[in-house]
Structures are given as structure tokens and as C-alpha cells.
Write a structure and sequence with these properties.
By secondary structure, the protein is α/β, with parallel strands linked by helices. Helix content is 43%, strand content 25%. A four-stranded mixed beta sheet has the order 1-2-3-4, with helices on one face.
């Protein structure tokens, strides 16, 4: 698997998101992440440090995961968001939301 291949995996209480995520592959990755979140009991940290792209669809995916986690009673926090993703979030008034998560 190349570093650009989008992936999501749950390991040791963390959901690792990596690769190049875009409009063509985000739906499958979103569904895969949702399946993993449903299996979590208390909390999970979403590690974004492996992202090789920044795209608005990533923010949409993260918001969907947050809504699902809230419905499931799971605490979801984010770490390692690339600066460009934080800047993109700021354009949508989501920077505080993304950065307020450790």
C-alpha cells in the first residue's frame, strides 16, 4: 500500500487516517470509519497526522464521524491535523471545532 492510498484503521484506541483523501474515495473511507466507531465503547482519538492531502471532503467526513460518535455516546477527539486542514477548517468557521480537540 502506497503512502498515498487512503486508509483508516483502529489500533490501540486510536483511529488512524492516512493517505490522499478526495471526493472519489471519501465515501468508502467514511463508511469504513463509521463501522469502526460503532465498535468503540468509550472514546477514540482520530489521528490525522498521516494525511497526505487536505480537502473539504475530509472535514465533512470528520463532522459525520463526530455526529455518529455523539449518537453512540463515544468521545471523539482529533490529533495531528495538518496546518492546511486547520486553515481550510477556518474558512468554514470550523477551526475552533477541529483545534478544540486534542
Amino acid at each position: 500500500m502506497s503512502p498515498e492510498t487512503p486508509a483508516v484503521r483502529l489500533e490501540a484506541g486510536a483511529l488512524f487516517v492516512s493517505g490522499a483523501i478526495d471526493a472519489h474515495n471519501v465515501a468508502a473511507l467514511r463508511a469504513e470509519g463509521e463501522g469502526l466507531i460503532v465498535g468503540v465503547r468509550d472514546s477514540v482519538v482520530v489521528d490525522l497526522s498521516g494525511l497526505s492531502t487536505t480537502h473539504s471532503v475530509i472535514l465533512s467526513m470528520l463532522l459525520c464521524w463526530s455526529r455518529l460518535a455523539e449518537k453512540q455516546g463515544v468521545s471523539l477527539t482529533y490529533t495531528g491535523a495538518p496546518d492546511r486542514l486547520v486553515s481550510l477548517a477556518a474558512l468554514s468557521s470550523l477551526a475552533d471545532w477541529l483545534q478544540s480537540r486534542p
